[in-house]
Design goal:
With 200 residues, the chain is of the alpha/beta class. Helices cover 39% and strands 22% of the residues.
Length: 200
């Protein structure tokens, strides 16, 4: 069996530097004591820009891994002049690890994430037990997780992960605060949605 090589000291130092920079940036960017609205995998920022325009009292952050998507999202934000909206090129796990202590999550949106359909890639899926625990650790009581996908098997996978989690409770009666179609939703022939509330 092939075992991956352990990370080099240079790589670990690079990660430590990147996280220190992110912590400093987030501390200056995010107001303490205000619940944060977060979109994981924000794409070009279409949904979150519309959401932020309708919720001027909330601090909103969108994350994506592709720099071009973030650049396009920032242009949308700037055209709309939304000072309370921020887009960052960042991994979700690293963002949560570097979030300032005084900042808690309010609503979290995960809309049409990569379903990683091949079984050997399922470990890359975002919504599974360990990540849901990390999310819950930074979420306030009553925080809501909004999830939507056009991949039926991933929906069943995520629903099972949430249903068995000790902190999150699925509540399909919770209304969506903004039903603005994403680019992926406009292309989907069908999709499924669920809402989970931090209850523990």
């Amino acid at each position: 069996m092939h075992h991956p090589a352990p990370p080099t000291p240079e790589f670990l130092a690079h990660v430590a530097d990147r996280q220190a920079t992110l912590r400093t940036h987030l501390a200056a960017l995010l107001p303490a004591g205000t619940p944060l609205t977060l979109e994981l995998g924000c794409g070009h920022g279409h949904f979150l820009t519309r959401y932020a325009a309708a919720h001027s009292d909330q601090c909103c952050v969108g994350l994506d891994l592709l720099a071009d998507r973030i650049r396009r999202a920032v242009r949308k934000r700037d055209r709309a002049r939304l000072a309370h909206l921020h887009f960052l090129k960042c991994e979700a796990v690293e963002f949560l690890a570097c979030l300032p202590a005084g900042v808690t999550l309010g609503d979290v949106f995960v809309l049409f994430p990569d379903p990683w359909p091949k079984r050997r890639h399922h470990k890359n899926r975002l919504l599974q037990a360990d990540f849901l625990t990390q999310l819950a650790d930074r979420a306030g009581q009553g925080s809501r997780l909004f999830f939507r996908t056009d991949h039926a098997e991933y929906f069943a996978f995520a629903r099972a992960a949430l249903a068995s989690h000790p902190v999150w409770r699925i509540d399909m009666a919770v209304p969506w605060p903004l039903d603005e179609p994403t680019v992926f939703q406009q292309k989907a022939s069908a999709f499924q949605s669920l809402v989970a509330v931090r209850a523990g």
